[in-house]
């Protein structure tokens, strides 16, 4: 299961087994190498093509230009916040967005599970709400909620409905025999929810977290396009308006890093939880 | 066990009075059980056999109180059943252990739900699990155990709440045939030793004859009582383990009788 175990040389075992292990290790190495190679090729092309004037560097910028831009943006001036402040603003709004989506999603899914008729009534509305392009509401949210709240609102709006649907489906897919088992001991509906349905849905909750963390970030960035004077979304908007693609690309690169870190954090949570199963 | 097995005239542990059960769906209604009446004496081991779909499992759900009959009544200790009853334990077809709980925490589930003293339940659970050879697995997770071990945990979970009556719904059907025979011996021995009243539902004729003292045959849907047989292995003297019973001279006679009663046809 764990990587350490995997890579450790087998202390004993037949020759064939050791050969098999070596083969598996090579296969793993090949995958890692290929993954790294794709990244390197991408960065090299991004650097070389604009410099050779094959693509216009004004449109794409290039990696070696980003570091100076980053250092430039790092400075805090009276007119311009540091890029760390922008990043934190975006990350903070994303955390608010997906925490709210998780909390509300679990609560609403539990309510739908509890009152099945409520689900039957709301089902078509939920499906439509989920399919709606929520970004259409960005200008309206700005008017309704103001600069800051509209960003949280967009983040929540984009991730909430899919979270409800994923978690509710998870609740529904709990083995009815596990519920029957609890009933043979005389379990109340509340006990079934707390002792069977919720703990049995932990893998679903993690799946929902994976989906809605990414979507919350989308919501925040889109919200920032419209209404913020802080955040990476704002920086992208600002950079493109004054035609400084270096700024845009730096902000996008940081978004890529933020996404990767979020993915790693969720994988870590998943591994920690699944070890108990 | 003598002659008490024919119905427990004095004070039956479990009594079914003119039980009817119908299921409704948009496609129509299904009559699952019709006019079922029988009683089970304290400490008696009764098997109910019938083909799939004859309402055997429904019968157990009615006795346990998680289903309500369309008509008729179930009495346990002379009192009508109106919901799940602490005196009645129910063992399902599969173990349905919760994969997120340790073996010990799975075993005390019933006590936890019933709001019983959890520390007492833990002591009893440890005792039962140790007795069933699972002492060193208390803090393991279900996925680390084999099918037979898991079903023994399920038995411990059922007995941990100290029911007088144990309902068994094809409890070995998910196991391989060797484990099945071994576990039938173990479970029968445990239930007899603890003096439990047991009602086993199965479609396995051999299992019914070898484990129980009495076999009730249900007809095809709607399930009605077709016949009621006392099982005696007089020639061997005394009670046999299920495995010994399968080798007793009377076994084949019972098997043939029940086989004919079941009117097994291969359909299609």
Strand order in the sheet with the most strands of chain B: 6-7-8-3-9-10
In CATH's first tier, which class of the domain at 1-84 and 201-263 in chain B applies? Answer: Alpha Beta
C-alpha-based Rg of chain A, rounded: 24 Å
For the biggest sheet of chain A, the summary is:
none
Q: Roughly what fraction of the amino acids of chain A lie in strands?
A: under 5%
Rg calculated over all Cα atoms of chain B = 18 Å
Q: In CATH terms, what is the fold-level topology of the domain at 1-84 and 201-263 in chain B?
A: Rossmann fold
Question: Into which percentage range does the β-strand content of chain B fall?
Answer: 15-25%
Mean pLDDT rating of chain A? 90
- Find the structural class of chain B using helix and strand composition: alpha/beta
Shape field of chain A: flat
Write down the overall geometry of chain B.
globular
CATH homologous superfamily title of the largest domain in chain A: MetI-like
Q: What is the CATH fold-level name of the largest domain in chain A?
A: MetI-like fold
Low-confidence stretches of chain B: 1-8
CATH uppermost class of the largest domain in chain A: Mainly Alpha
The oligomeric state is: heterodimer
Total DSSP helices of chain A = 12
> Would you report the number of β strands of chain A?
0
Can you tell me about this structure?
The complex is a heterodimer of chains A (277) and B (268). In chain A, 31% of the residues are buried. Chain A is mainly α and 277 residues long. Chain A folds into 2 domains: 3-60; 65-274, MetI-like fold (Orthogonal Bundle). Helices cover 82% and strands 0% of the residues of chain A. Chain A has helices at residues 3-7, 15-51, 57-60, 63-74, 83-114, 116-131, 138-172, 176-184, 189-200, 202-227, 232-241, 245-274. Chain A has 12 helices and no strands. Residues 1-5 of chain A have low confidence and may be disordered. Chain B has 268 residues and is an alpha/beta fold. Chain B has a domain at 1-84 and 201-263: P-loop containing nucleotide triphosphate hydrolases (Rossmann fold), CATH 3.40.50. Chain B is built from 9 helices and 10 strands. A 6-stranded mixed beta sheet of chain B has the order 6-7-8-3-9-10, with helices on both faces. Chain B has a 4-stranded antiparallel beta sheet with strand order 2-1-4-5. In chain B, strand 9 and strand 10 (225-230) form a beta hairpin. The longest helix of chain B is centred in the last third of the chain and has 17 residues, at 177-193. Chain B is globular, with a radius of gyration of 18 Å. Mean pLDDT of chain B is 86; it is low at 1-8. The A-B interface holds A 175, 177-178, 180-187, 191, 195-196, 199-200, 202, 276-277 and B 64, 66, 83-86, 89-90, 92-94, 96, 98-101, 109-110, 112-114, 141, 143, 161.
């Amino acid at each position: 299961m764990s990587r350490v175990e995997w890579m450790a040389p087998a202390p004993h075992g037949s020759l064939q087994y050791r050969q098999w292990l070596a083969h598996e290790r090579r296969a793993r190495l090949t995958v890692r190498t290929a993954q790294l190679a794709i990244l390197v090729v991408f960065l090299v092309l991004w650097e070389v093509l604009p410099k050779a004037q094959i693509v216009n560097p004004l449109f794409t910028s290039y990696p070696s230009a980003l570091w100076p831009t980053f250092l430039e943006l790092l400075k805090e001036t009276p007119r311009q916040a540091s890029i760390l402040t922008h990043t934190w603003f975006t990350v903070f709004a994303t955390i608010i967005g997906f925490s709210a989506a998780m909390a509300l999603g679990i609560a609403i899914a539990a309510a739908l599970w509890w009152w099945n008729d409520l689900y039957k009534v709301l089902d078509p509305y939920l499906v439509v709400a989920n399919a709606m392009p929520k970004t259409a509401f960005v200008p309206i949210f700005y008017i309704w909620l103001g600069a800051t709240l509209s960003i949280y609102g967009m983040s929540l709006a984009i991730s909430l409905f899919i979270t409800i649907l994923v978690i509710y489906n998870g609740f529904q897919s709990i083995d009815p025999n596990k519920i029957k088992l609890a009933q043979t001991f005389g379990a109340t509906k509340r006990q079934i929810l707390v002792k069977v349905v919720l703990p049995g849905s932990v893998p679903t909750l993690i799946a929902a977290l994976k989906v809605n963390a990414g979507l919350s970030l989308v919501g925040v960035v889109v919200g920032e396009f419209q209404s913020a004077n802080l955040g990476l979304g704002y920086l992208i908007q600002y950079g493109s308006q004054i035609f400084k693609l270096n700024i845009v690309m730096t902000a996008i690169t940081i978004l890529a890093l933020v996404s990767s870190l979020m993915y790693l954090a969720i994988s870590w949570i998943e591994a920690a939880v699944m070890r108990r199963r | 066990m003598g002659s008490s097995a024919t119905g427990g005239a004095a004070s039956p542990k479990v009594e079914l009075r003119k039980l009817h059960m119908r299921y409704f769906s948009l496609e129509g209604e299904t009559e699952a059980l019709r006019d079922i009446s029988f009683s089970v004496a304290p400490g008696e081991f009764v098997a109910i056999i019938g083909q799939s779909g004859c309402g055997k499992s429904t019968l157990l759900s009615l006795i346990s109180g998680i289903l309500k009959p369309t008509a008729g009544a179930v009495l346990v200790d002379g009192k009508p059943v109106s919901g799940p009853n602490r005196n009645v334990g129910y063992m399902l077809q599969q173990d349905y252990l919760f994969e997120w709980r340790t073996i010990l925490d799975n075993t005390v589930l019933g006590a936890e739900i019933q709001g019983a003293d959890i520390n007492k339940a833990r002591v009893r659970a440890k005792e039962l699990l140790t007795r069933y050879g699972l002492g060193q697995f208390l803090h393991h997770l279900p996925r680390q155990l084999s099918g037979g071990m898991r079903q023994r945990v399920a038995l411990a979970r059922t007995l941990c709440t100290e029911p007088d009556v144990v309902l068994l719904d094809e409890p070995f059907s998910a196991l391989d045939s060797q484990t099945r025979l071994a576990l039938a011996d173990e479970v029968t021995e445990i239930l007899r030793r603890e003096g439990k009243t047991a009602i086993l539902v199965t479609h396995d004729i051999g299992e019914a004859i070898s484990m129980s003292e009495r076999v009730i045959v249900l007809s095809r849907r709607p399930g009605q009582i077709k016949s009621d047989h006392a099982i005696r292995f007089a020639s061997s003297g005394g009670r046999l383990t299920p495995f010994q019973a399968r080798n007793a001279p009377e076994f084949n006679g019972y098997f043939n009788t029940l086989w004919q009663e079941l009117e097994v046809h291969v359909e299609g």
